[in-house]
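Propose amino acids for all 312 sites.
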């Protein structure tokens, strides 16, 4: 189908940054062009039932993965779905919503790559893998401020979830085209700092823009703020793109132009001021800009538009 939606998957553990990344990409593509699906809506049990059954939301048995898979297939074919709604605020289910897919569909959640049929529905698959210490800090901040938990309750829940996280969530990394790991600079003692470095594992499962010409070593003893190297991930060869938090707009402007030049449809994004991308709220509510986040958003947008081009 040449007119079917392009589907992006963003999978990662709880509080890995999925929603932040999803919102940024949707803003670049135009919110009117994007349908966002959260796979947490396919939980089988509400919060009270999970506690009674001693099962976590990360376990496949706690989710209607078969219904999620069916809905992804319908969306890929351009068909509407009647999607369940799970409220993280109350821990209960609300009335389902009638959802029609737009030009782009972003599916974010815990178990999006857990079945072969579900994986086949995505055009681009992203996995978020921040250091566990950083994810813990993010989860404490989010769940205490937005979901009514105490810090002690969050830490207890993380302990209960650890075995399921190791068994069911982290292994999905192997299916991703792009693995995104935001992490604090080595000289930064506060891991909650809003401005982070990023490490992007570029798997050969999709076509990446050729960045080698603009990222050749300059012979300096000081590592450049943006680096492209060969490495291995899960035993397989990959390219790794790293962007440091201190990168400036000048540092990434040439890289941005290479990405944009690869697809004419990206020029409407690239012609904007780069300060429209990578905008986040700081730990005290101030508005900050992360160039590593901006470049990650732009690169994922590139993959989605490339997939659109392939299906025209």
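Proposal:
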């Amino acid at each position: 189908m040449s007119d079917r939606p392009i589907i992006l998957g963003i999978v990662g553990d709880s509080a890995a940054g999925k929603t932040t990344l999803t919102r940024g990409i949707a803003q670049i593509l135009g919110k009117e062009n994007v349908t966002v699906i959260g796979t947490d809506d396919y939980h089988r049990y509400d919060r009270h039932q999970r506690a009674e059954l001693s099962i976590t939301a990360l376990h496949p048995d706690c989710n209607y993965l078969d219904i999620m898979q069916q809905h992804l297939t319908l969306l890929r074919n351009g068909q509407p779905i009647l999607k369940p709604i799970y409220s993280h605020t109350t821990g209960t289910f609300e009335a389902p919503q009638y959802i029609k897919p737009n030009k782009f569909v972003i599916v974010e959640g815990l178990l999006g790559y857990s079945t072969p049929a579900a994986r086949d529905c995505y055009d681009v698959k992203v996995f978020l893998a921040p250091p566990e210490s950083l994810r813990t800090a993010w989860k404490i901040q989010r769940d205490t401020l937005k979901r009514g938990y105490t810090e002690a309750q969050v830490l207890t829940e993380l302990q209960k979830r650890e075995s399921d996280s190791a068994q069911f969530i982290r292994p999905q990394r192997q299916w991703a085209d792009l693995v995104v790991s935001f992490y604090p600079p080595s000289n930064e003692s506060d891991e909650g700092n809003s401005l982070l470095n990023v490490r992007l594992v570029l798997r050969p499962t999709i076509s990446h823009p050729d960045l080698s010409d603009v990222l050749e070593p300059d012979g300096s003893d000081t590592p450049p703020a943006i680096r492209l190297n060969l490495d291995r991930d899960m035993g397989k060869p990959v390219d790794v793109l790293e962007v440091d938090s201190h990168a400036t707009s000048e540092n990434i402007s040439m890289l941005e132009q290479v990405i944009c030049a690869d697809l004419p449809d990206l020029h409407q994004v690239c012609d904007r001021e780069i300060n429209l991308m990578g905008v986040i709220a700081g730990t005290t509510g101030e508005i900050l800009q992360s160039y590593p986040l901006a470049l990650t958003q732009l690169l994922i947008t590139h993959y989605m538009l490339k997939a659109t081009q392939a299906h025209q």
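Residues 189-193 have pLDDT under 50 and may be disordered. The radius of gyration is 19 Å.
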